[in-house]
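Hi again,

Forgot to attach this to my earlier email, sorry! This is the prediction with adenosine-5'-diphosphate bound. I've pasted everything inline since the attachment limit keeps bouncing my files.
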Amino acid sequence: MKKFKRVLVANRGEIAIRVFRACEELGIRSVAIYSEEDKNSLFRTKADESYRIGKNKKPVDAYLGIDEIISLAKSKGVDAIHPGYGFLSENVEFARKCEEEGIVFIGPDHIMMSKLGDKIKSKIVANSVGVPTIPGIEEAVKSEDDAKKFADYCGYPVILKASAGGGGRGMRIAWREEDLLREFKSAQSEAKKAFGIDDIFIEKYLDKPKHIEVQVLGDNYGNIVHLFERDCSIQRRHQKVVEFTPAISITEEQRQAICSDAIKLAKAVNYRSAGTLEFLVDNTGRHYFIEMNPRIQVEHTVTEMITGIDLVQSQILIAQGYSLDSDEVNIKGQESIEKRGYAIQCRVTTEDPANNFAPDTGKIDMYRTGSGFGIRLDGGNGFTGAEISPYYDSLLVKVISHSRTFSDAISKNARALKELKIGGVKTNIGFLLNVLNHETFKNGSCDTGFIAENPSLLN
Ligand code: ADP
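Structure tokens for the complex follow:
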């Protein structure tokens, strides 16, 4: 058991604040890092200490400087580093170096991460324990010819994916042979450019599946539980926009089958910390594992609302060596986890829906938030006078509602979105309201084709 005194968050914005809050509640001192471009950002003032990093580096690279971050952590007496999501959160090298330097990486160890962080490898693990995956080739495809052979065998459409990909990037759909031949090389070079490795793989492209994912938590002693599923089917260009839990459009049997496959897979690697197993469900109701995210996710909030379990605190406690059933983590077995009601998260971004969701920048000249019964706001950069820069993710605030019924969770979320008044930069609030008010959303049955098929959501 190693009690943490100081935890550094190798991240920025809302997730950095989320972790600082958890630290404060656990009586741990929080340490922020920030780039030159973030010197006036809100998040750094929410930590107990903050240090500038990345001198002369590009804005994004500041948060990717493995050696600089670790040596800063060491010089400040930091016990552990929380990586948040994005940036270094799935970087095996970073996790390994933290371990080497005696700093606890709050997440799985680097070996576990290397087994799972990569989409091809995690598919292989899934197949080895009998968890269904989408038909595809379980290794990097090296040539157009190999890709074509697979597509001829399983039929079009197929999808090319970057093995190291994330955030909906690095995917190309081929509806016919010409597309495949045309897209192959650019998919490879895009993968190399965005993720540093040009490994791409191919699998069958499912027709408008649902995206259902399962939250798991594991400790250092082999205990693993799931905290039910989330429906993240409402996506724009393969990126999640609205998430909710529990999923409504699957049966209880499907829910149990998906959650039990998630546990099977997490157990196969003896998973530790918070993680998510993502599945696609096709229109016949079959589910397929697609990838594992060995980190906290943007949408973890909805799971916290219905289970009452603080996932970030749990991560920190597990990293200190507490077991799931300790009084600190306080999860006394799978059966002890109950869910109450429905929770919905809308991602408010500084993007202009009328201009193909181009990120908008500038000074926020008015920032008034909604609140009230059943509302939680997890924000990072929003306040009157804040400067929205073009350098980072455009997520401004997450509006999360929780209620006894799905329909009331929708009403509460819509009400909070209407109360949220942001001036000076464009946001997607109107678009989110259109999603919440749509009949298909209201009956919980959106699939991943929903946004693309409903251009009226932009009005
Ligand atoms: P990322 O890691 O970039 O988020 P994922 O592999 O999790 O990528 O996929 C993101 C989304 O892309 C899925 O939720 C789904 O909408 C779509 N997708 C991925 N693979 C397939 C597939 N084989 N068939 C249909 N849709 C897919």
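The chain has a mean pLDDT of 96. The longest helix spans residues 177-195.

That should be everything now.

G.
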